[in-house]
Write a structure and sequence with these properties.
alpha+beta; Aminopeptidase; Histone Acetyltransferase, Chain A; 3 domains; 6-stranded mixed β-sheet; 16 helices; disordered N terminus; GCN5; transcription regulation; acyltransferase; Histone acetyltransferase GCN5
Length: about 550
């Protein structure tokens, strides 16, 4: 692929003929499951011709026959006559599918095409430890059927292991109240709890899947790309719709789609690789707003990093993107920074520049599998704790002192307390701890100083007078003072009483009036700030007497 500055962009064509479905996200139907791309073994191999036994159902919106897994169904929008006909024809199939829908309500009746003779066998699911799946969901038309499918997926895939091997053993799993899964990880005999994200659990249970698609003219990929286009147009309302459509369908761009079964696009990322320049540009990244609190966005970004690094054999090491003010926080959490280490000659003129956006960069670590980053950090923590136990006894928990159960005991030698001496305690440390760190008036003086520093008339007195700007100031003023110096003295506990604090404050006002004429701005600011300070002191009745001194 010849790379260079992108050509002048023509007007985009909107491939979406129906915008009515945009509010709830696109409902995409399978037509040829044999063409689906499944990535396994760390994104290394692409496997096609993966067939699934399914039933077919027709929908009004698309007008095409679609295939889906047994137990999955779409809401029927066809006319009442067709529904009633198929309800009688497929009565036996509906009983096997264990549908609890009310057959008297035509809206809940499900249509099944008995002409599809390949529909009888149940699908065989293969969940590899390296299969990339991401979850993000929009409010979809088939949410009811998706809930029923979850139970089936958990039954079929519940025994599959989707985690990579790490040093240590698993001590069992526990369900949490928020739907998460806590895995107990044992390392050197110590148990470490690890909570899986909801996104990871949905991936493990086969509720969502992850797909890499581009514009190869295949019908199914075009349907997925159209779903992504609708997501981006909804979540990025300030971006021109034609511009989004043009880039999503552009053949030089690659998209990673998050698909919830049966085939509802719920989010994704579109990027453009520049292999010879060692970076990829993230063009669009969006997840349904109703699902952004479940960790889908972070999980999707981890999939992107692992896929790009493996699919391009390590030739792409960096990501660049322009982020708006709302996305900067998200990208920072995913390892992006505003500090661009790539030379401008590498990327300038190649990536799309957006007015008001902030360019950010992420450099991938070659030895990290980002989908296992949390587990790697857990193992590192366990190794560090092991080293600490080798040189310290801090992990030993000792029982409480029984001697104080005797009411006659009032004092004991601290060195006789088990473990205290080993921890490095000395009598000198106890003396330091008993010292009064701050003056009893510290809080009041700090509040008064903060009020003065925030006052509009405080700016002339914020810093010491610069002798280079006012050459004779220190010849006239023998005892200079300013708010910054007062702050330093307060933090150093130089003020034992409020009278000492007030003495320095009055120095500021008197020095200003002594050096400046009463018609000057500085003179007036000093008088205003002095009156303000006195009014604040009166708010503390116990200190009102200092104003008389």
């Amino acid at each position: 692929m010849a790379e260079g500055p992108p050509p002048k962009r023509k007007k985009a064509i909107d491939y979406d003929d129906d915008d009515d479905d945009e509010d709830e996200g696109p409902l995409i139907k399978r037509t040829r499951l044999e063409k689906n791309t499944t990535l396994e073994n760390g994104y290394g191999d692409r496997k096609g011709e993966q067939k699934h036994g399914s039933r077919s159902a027709g929908t009004k919106s698309s007008g095409v026959s679609t295939k889906q897994n047994t137990g999955d169904s779409l809401k029927d929008t066809t006319n009442d006559t067709t529904r009633n006909k198929n309800k009688n024809k497929n009565k036996t199939d509906n009983d096997n599918n264990n549908n609890n829908n009310d057959n008297n309500d035509p809206k809940n009746n499900k249509k099944h095409d008995t002409n599809d003779k390949r529909a009888s066998p149940a699908p065989t699911k293969t969940v590899s430890s390296d299969v990339v799946i991401v979850n993000d969901s929009l409010k979809s038309k088939n949410s009811d059927s998706g809930a029923n499918d979850n139970n089936k997926d958990k039954t079929e895939d519940g025994d599959k292991d989707n985690s990579t091997s790490v040093t240590g053993t698993s001590a069992g799993d526990e369900e949490t109240t928020d739907g998460g899964l806590v895995t107990k990880f044992v390392f050197d005999g110590v148990e470490y709890p690890y909570k899986e994200r909801p996104a990871v659990l949905e991936e493990m249970n086969g509720i969502i899947e992850f797909r890499v698609v581009n514009n190869d003219n295949s019908k199914e990929n075009m349907m997925v790309l159209t779903g992504l286009k609708n997501i981006f147009q909804k979540q990025l309302p300030k971006m021109p719709r034609e511009y989004i459509a043009r880039l999503v369908y552009d053949r030089s761009h690659v998209s990673i789609a998050v698909v919830r079964k049966p085939l509802t696009v719920v989010g994704g990322i579109t990027f453009r690789p520049f292999e010879s320049r060692t970076f990829a540009e993230i063009v669009f990244c969006a997840i349904s707003s109703t699902e952004q609190v479940r960790g889908y966005g972070a999980h999707l970004m981890n999939h992107l990093k692992d896929y790009v690094r493996n699919a391009y054999a390590g030739r792409i090491k960096n990501f660049l993107t322009y982020a708006d003010n709302y996305a900067i926080g998200y990208f920072k959490k995913q390892g992006f920074t505003k500090e661009i280490s790539l030379d401008k000659s590498i990327w300038m003129g190649y990536i799309k520049d957006y007015e008001g956006g902030t360019i950010m960069q992420c450099t991938m670590l070659p030895k990290i599998r980002y989908l296992d980053a949390n587990k790697i950090l857990l193992v590192q923590k366990a190794a560090i704790m092991r080293k600490i136990r080798e040189i310290s006894k801090s992990h030993i928990v000792r029982p409480g002192l029984q001697v104080f159960k005797n009411p006659e005991v009032t004092q004991i030698d601290p060195l006789t307390i088990p473990g205290l001496k080993e921890a490095g305690w000395t009598p000198a440390m106890d003396e330091i701890a008993r010292r009064l760190k701050r003056s009893p008036h510290y809080a009041v003086m700090q509040a008064l100083l903060n009020e003065m520093q925030a006052h509009p008339s405080a700016w002339p007195f914020a810093e010491p007078v610069n002798k280079d700007e006012v050459a004779d100031y220190y010849e006239v003023i023998k005892e200079p003072m300013d708010l910054f110096t007062m702050e330093q003295r307060l933090e150093a506990d130089a003020y034992a009483t409020l009278e000492q604090f007030l003495y320095d404050a009055r120095l500021i006002f008197n020095n200003c009036r002594k050096y400046n004429n009463e018609t000057t701005t500085y003179y007036k600011h000093a008088t205003k700030l002095e009156k303000f300070l006195y009014s604040k002191i009166k708010d503390y009745p116990e200190y009102a007497h200092v104003l008389d001194s």
